[in-house]
Design brief:
Layout (H helix, E strand, L loop, with lengths): L1 H26 L2 H10 L15 E4 L2 E4 L3 H16 L1 H24 L7 H8 L19 H6 L14 H19 L2 H10 L1 H11 L11 H18 L19 E6 L6 H7 L4 H7 L15 E6 L22
Antiparallel strand pairs: 1-2, 3-4
């Protein structure tokens, strides 16, 4: 009995060591792996600090990040996203459904494609999310800012939660900010800190770039968070994220129904369309009440196709081939 227990213990130890070494092999050099094998870690897993590159390509330009504050700023964010496993994994899955909507709109408005990652860090690509400051939707607009850039917000409608319309509104903001700053990194920082604040700090601190400014921590971290999540999205396997095609969330085909008259009971309307009230709300997150008052406007409702709402057939659509293992 004692020998059996000892044998089982040795087997478990060998498996744990193997897992630890396999985890390490993903992110370290061969010399480091040999050293790890020799020293036999005392725990069943190893946490490796991700490499920090000397430069990052973002918003169409290459930025040197070897300066201490930039190196450490990027290091903090790449480490956070790398080891925040469940959340970062979910971002890939959602992006497979959302990026095909966002990217063409950014292109149409001549906004750098990398700004899709701003939406990722703002909302985790959840169109219904609301912050403690009452910013809402994929692009996290405050009510006043949303209205300023053309979004309708009423007791029954909140277009901040409409991915298409809120992306158009975000493009308007970003273009206006670029006219003021002429620098996309400063534009990104202004999305968090506000155009007025960034302009004021440029004048007060006598610098031109957000990377040289002293700002509140949240705004200071903002550009590095965009850089880091882009780095992981473009190199998921390097950072330990292994996904298959079937793991990604599939885009669900819908039919469009235009509505110009008030709908007094959305549950009844949904039933007439052959779906549930819950499905109607999920596919139209801008509906903020149990009824719809159009106030003279025409709204387009997305009605999911019945056959598309099941994973009986695994997902086959991959928006970016780098996201999945072959």
């Amino acid at each position: 009995m004692y020998k059996t227990k000892l044998l089982n213990k040795n087997i478990i130890s060998m498996i744990a060591a193997g897992i630890a070494c396999l985890t390490a092999c993903i992110a370290v050099s061969s010399n480091d792996v040999e050293k790890i094998k020799e020293e036999r870690p005392l725990v069943a897993s190893i946490t490796i600090s991700p490499d920090v590159p000397s430069s990052i390509s973002i918003f169409g330009e290459t930025i040197d990040i070897t300066r201490y504050n930039m190196y450490e700023g990027f290091d903090r964010e790449i480490s956070s996203f790398t080891y925040f496993h469940s959340t970062t994994m979910l971002l890939f899955k959602r992006a497979n459904r959302v990026f095909p909507i966002i990217e063409p709109i950014l292109k149409e408005h001549s906004i750098p494609d990398d700004f899709k990652y701003l939406a990722v860090i703002e909302s985790h690509l959840d169109p219904r999310v609301s912050s403690s400051a009452r910013a809402v939707g994929t692009w996290q607009f405050l009510e006043s800012t949303g209205k300023q850039y053309g979004l309708t917000i009423t007791p029954t409608v909140d277009e901040r939660c409409d991915v298409v319309k809120s992306t158009v509104a975000a493009c308007k903001y970003l273009k206006e900010a670029y006219k003021r700053f002429g620098d996309w990194s400063n534009v990104a920082a202004s999305y968090n800190g506000g155009m007025g604040r960034i302009s004021g700090e440029i004048a007060r601190q006598k610098v031109e770039s957000v990377y040289d400014m002293w700002l509140v921590q949240e705004t200071t971290r903002y550009p590095y968070r965009i850089m880091a999540i882009k780095q992981i999205f473009e190199n998921p396997y390097k950072y330990g994220f292994v996904l298959r095609t079937k793991d990604l969330y599939k885009p669900v085909k819908t039919k469009e129904v235009s509505v110009s008259k008030d709908i007094l009971n959305l549950a009844e309307f949904a039933r007439e369309q052959g779906i549930t009230y819950a499905d109607l709300k999920r596919f139209n997150p801008w509906l903020r009440d149990s009824k719809l008052n159009t106030l003279g406007k025409t709204y387009t409702l997305q009605i999911p196709e019945e056959s598309e709402m099941y994973y009986k057939r695994p997902n086959t659509y991959v928006h970016d081939s780098r996201w999945v293992v072959k």
